[in-house]
Design a protein that fits this description.
Layout (H helix, E strand, L loop, with lengths): L7 H8 L4 H8 L3 H9 L1 H12 L1 E3 L7 H17 L6 E4 L4 E8 L2 E6 L10 E6 H5 L9 E4 L3 E8 H4 L1 E9 L5 E9 L13 E7 L4 H4 L3 E7 L2 E7 L12 E6 L4 E7 L9 E4 L2 E6 L4 E6 L10 E2 L4 E4 L7 E10 L19 E3 L5 E10 L4 E9 H5 L37 E2 L1 H4 L4 E6 L1 H4 L5 E2 L2 E7 L10 E7 L2 H22 L21 E2 L7 E4 L6 E5 L3 E2 L16 E2 L3 E10 L3 E5 L2 E7 L5 E8 L5
Parallel strand pairs: 14-18, 19-24
Antiparallel strand pairs: 1-21, 2-37, 3-4, 4-5, 5-6, 7-8, 8-9, 9-10, 11-12, 12-13, 13-14, 15-16, 16-17, 17-19, 20-22, 22-23, 23-25, 26-27, 27-28, 28-34, 29-32, 30-31, 31-34, 32-33, 35-36, 36-37
Helix pairs in contact: 4-5
Length: 614
């Protein structure tokens, strides 16, 4: 039986399971298949989802035709930075330094003492409530845990879960570090957690100045809760030992543990449900680790890297002070949604297509600091892992910080070192280095899907308050190819209209000055494609060619001792209007402008929602 002998509905059903490239191939097979694919709303929607890096949300009440229309309008608005009217948000409380942004939820710590480092209460709200108009104290849900809060982690849509890291003083004068597993919607102990309070460590009492230097990173995917804890600087050598632990948060069982030096690690992020990226500052590498293997007894397994990706070699006298990283949304094995946060959006970002960002802060022996951002697709990092089972792990004595240290543990078998991949073998084609500012890199919730946002500060003027331009980077390869081809056709058409000498006019029939870019093109490479949108006046740039990082610097002043060229294509959009923002954050279709006071505390938020036509 031939495919074409089936009914029209059956053919559409069969084709709906194909990848975009296969559907395009089918269109070229014969006129009948081309007409079926072109005329099917379902197949057009499936193709548009794949091209845009989204996946369908079956919980949405919208029909497919409306979903397709909204998806096209949304992507068109992003390509022009067409936002709705900005909505200013005054905070009805004193925020602390703790914040989190994920799945349409914005969380802030509240300091009742008025000190930025002291967090006593958690406040959270839905971004949809902020973008709707003026807000009051009622829009911010209040959660009090009865202890000093160090940091938080969120798993909103999957589990309705907020994990709160706290410290408190015991009756013996010691400091107890704990994880509290709460249901975000109610503020109560999470009903799926068998042990809603996980004790991490008990150490001698710490002075307040030292306690304020604590660094914590928490991420949750599926049943896995990963927790990193350390003190930067000289405190890490004594109080308490740095730790990285993997828990099954539902049972409270500690699955894996990693001893580490405080100067080596500062953060991590999930690349897959069972793979994390762990930047190593001391070794100038990114370690990829498989997690989730369960111990045969009560002794947690020692977490070992599966693969080590080397970064470019540093110049003599330079070192990496800190690396922060993030990928959003996270990939889960099951697309489950907690009832309280079940999304009605027609589609969501596809986690497998997302990018991962690494904010790298360096310093040299002369006291100079530089900030760089490394960007790659998560799937390109995962390709470096050979399709084999995770490397064997060994039983290991938990660190001195563990409250349940067994007296003895069997000797760990010899494990071969993880394979290391040189930067030149994995990085140049898969990544893009960007030069960023220290103030912008301080905030990590700046990516969602395949987009990354930052601010580009204007030249300082002593007589005027500082302003900045919103800059959006899009790393969707399909969007970049499509717009690059469109702009090339526009330029050829304009050159024909202007005559044989056509003087470099851009879109809109007037000269376009290329916006300043974070990475400068190599001399032999063609210049980036630049354009200006007639309606929003947004200045755009499409870079499909490799560029050299810090090419304008003399070799002695570069961070890396080798020429670093990266070729991941991107589109850069710079807003025409300037704003008084110290940073911008991104979640789904909303950019949040952050206004800071003189102490760099959050003073006001401004919501920029993409004009999606809903």
């Amino acid at each position: 039986m031939s495919l074409l002998t089936l009914s029209h509905e059956m053919v559409v059903h069969v084709l709906s399971n194909l990848h975009y490239n296969d559907l395009n191939t089918c269109r070229r097979v014969c006129h009948l298949l081309n007409r079926i694919i072109q005329g099917s709303i379902l197949l057009q929607y499936s193709m548009q989802l794949q091209l845009s890096g989204f996946e369908d949300n079956a919980s949405s009440p919208l029909v497919i035709a409306d979903k397709l229309r909204l998806l096209k309008q949304q992507e068109s608005a992003w390509q022009r930075l067409d936002f709705s009217k900005p909505v200013p948000v005054r905070l009805p409380f004193h925020p602390s330094s703790i914040y989190e942004l994920s799945d349409g939820i914005f969380l802030l710590g509240e300091s009742t003492s008025g000190l930025q480092t002291g967090t006593d209460i958690i406040r959270w709200t839905r971004l949809s409530a902020l973008s709707a108009g003026p807000t009051s104290d009622d829009n911010w849900v209040r959660i009090c845990v009865g202890a000093h809060i160090i940091d938080v982690g969120l798993s909103v849509q999957e589990h309705d879960l907020v994990v709160v890291a706290t410290d408190r003083e015991s009756e013996d004068g010691e400091t107890i570090f704990e994880l509290r597993l709460l249901q975000l919607s109610t503020g109560l102990n999470h009903p799926l957690a068998a042990n809603p309070v996980v004790q991490l460590a008990t150490v001698p009492a710490l002075t307040q100045p030292v306690a304020g230097q604590c660094s914590v990173c928490i991420e949750i995917v599926g049943d896995y809760l990963c927790f990193m804890f350390h003190y930067p600087g000289p405190y890490g050598a004594t109080h308490p030992p740095a730790m990285f632990e993997v828990y099954d948060w539902k049972t409270g069982e500690c699955l894996q543990i990693r001893e580490m030096k405080c100067t080596s690690y500062s953060t991590f992020t999930f690349l897959a449900p069972d793979v994390i990226a762990l930047p190593n500052c001391a070794d100038n590498t990114i370690e990829l680790c498989h997690i989730g293997q369960r111990p045969v007894d009560d002794t947690p397994l020692k977490l070992e890297p599966t693969c080590i990706l080397q970064l470019p070699r540093l110049q003599k006298g330079h070192s990496i002070a800190q690396v922060t990283c993030r990928s959003e949304p996270k990939t889960a094995r099951a697309r489950t949604h907690a009832r309280a946060f079940r999304s009605q959006e027609p589609f969501h970002h596809c986690p497998e297509q997302a990018i991962v960002i690494f904010n790298v802060m360096t310093h040299d022996d002369q006291g100079w600091h530089e900030c760089l951002t490394l960007i790659a697709h998560t799937k390109s990092l995962l390709r470096t892992l050979k399709p084999s089972s995770p490397r064997p792990t060994s039983s290991s004595l938990p660190t001195a910080a563990s409250p349940k240290s067994p007296a003895k543990s069997p000797a760990a078998p010899d494990i071969p070192p993880a394979p290391q991949i040189a930067w030149t073998d994995w990085g140049p084609d898969a990544c893009r280095w960007l030069e960023t500012s220290f103030s912008a890199s301080r905030w990590i919730t700046t990516t969602c899907g395949q987009r990354y946002v930052t601010v580009e500060e204007d030249s300082p003027d002593d007589e005027q308050p500082p302003t900045a331009t919103i800059v959006v980077f899009d790393f969707n390869p399909h969007t970049i190819r499509k717009l690059a081809a469109h702009n090339r056709r526009q330029r050829r058409r304009q050159r024909r209209q202007l005559g044989v000498d056509g003087h470099g006019h851009g879109l809109g029939a007037y000269p376009v000055e290329a916006p300043p870019t974070f990475a400068r093109a190599l001399d032999p490479a063609p210049p980036p494609i630049t354009f200006t949108d007639k309606e929003t006046q947004v200045i755009g740039q499409i870079q499909c060619e490799p560029t050299e990082l810090m090419s304008a610097y003399t070799p002695d002043h570069r961070i890396f001792c080798e020429r670093v060229r990266t070729g991941l294509p991107y589109m850069q959009l710079s807003s025409y209007e300037t704003f008084g923002y110290g940073a911008v954050l991104l979640d789904r279709n909303i950019i949040i402008g952050v206004k800071l006071n003189d102490a760099d505390d959050i003073k006001e938020l401004v919501i920029h929602s993409i004009n999606s036509g809903r």
